[in-house]
Amino acid sequence: MLYFFAGRDVVVVSHGLTKEGEVPDREIALALARKRLVEAEFAEFTYYSE
How far is residue 37's CA from residue 41's CA, in Å, rounded to a whole number? Predict the structure, then answer.
């Protein structure tokens, strides 16, 4: 599972994968792209319960 922190209180799960050995560069690049997207538009990806 690849994840990152967005701020102090939010953990974002980028995606899960099955791996043997090292995490492929492609998967790391995908997680970093998603991180940049979430950081740029945090409110767009934030759920607030009613």
Answer: 6
Q: Are 17 and 23 in contact (CB under 8 A)?
A: yes
Q: What are phi and psi of 21, to 5 degrees?
A: 90, -135
Strands (E), the chain: 2-6, 10-15
List b or e across 23-32, with b for residues whose CB sees 16 or more CB atoms inside 10 angstroms: eeeebeeebe
pLDDT per residue as tens digits for the range 4-28: 888 778 888 887 877 778 888 898 8
State whether residue 5 is helix, strand or coil.
strand
